[in-house]
Amino acid sequence: EQWYVKMEELARRAAAVIEAGEVRFVPERYARPTLEYLHNIRDWCISRQLWWGHRIPIYSCSNGHEFASVESTERCPECGDAKLEQDPDVLDTWFSSALWPFAVLNWPGDSDDLNAFYPTDLMITDRQIIRLWVCRMVFSSLHFLDKIPFPDVYIHATVLTRDGKRMSKSKGTGVDPMVLIERYGADATRFGLLQMAAKGQDIRFTEERIESARLFCNKLLNASRFVMMHLGNNRRCGISANTGDWTLEDQWIASRLHDTIQKVNDDLAEYNLDDAANAIYEFVWNEFCDWYLELAKPRLQQEGEDAAHVRGILMETLETSLRLLHPFMPFITEEIWQTLKVFGTNPEDWGPSIMEAPFPDPYSPRRDESAEAEFGAAMEIIGAVRRLRSEAGVQPGQRIQAALVPTEGNPLPDRLIVYLNALSKAEARAIGREEIPQPSISDVTAGVEIYLPLAGLVDVEKETAKLRNEIASVEKDLAKVRVKLANEQFTSKAPPDVVEKERNIQSELETRLEAAQSRLEGLLKAG
Question: Which of 4, 76, 173, 223 is the most exposed place for a label (fewest CB within 10 A)?
Answer without folding.
Answer: 4
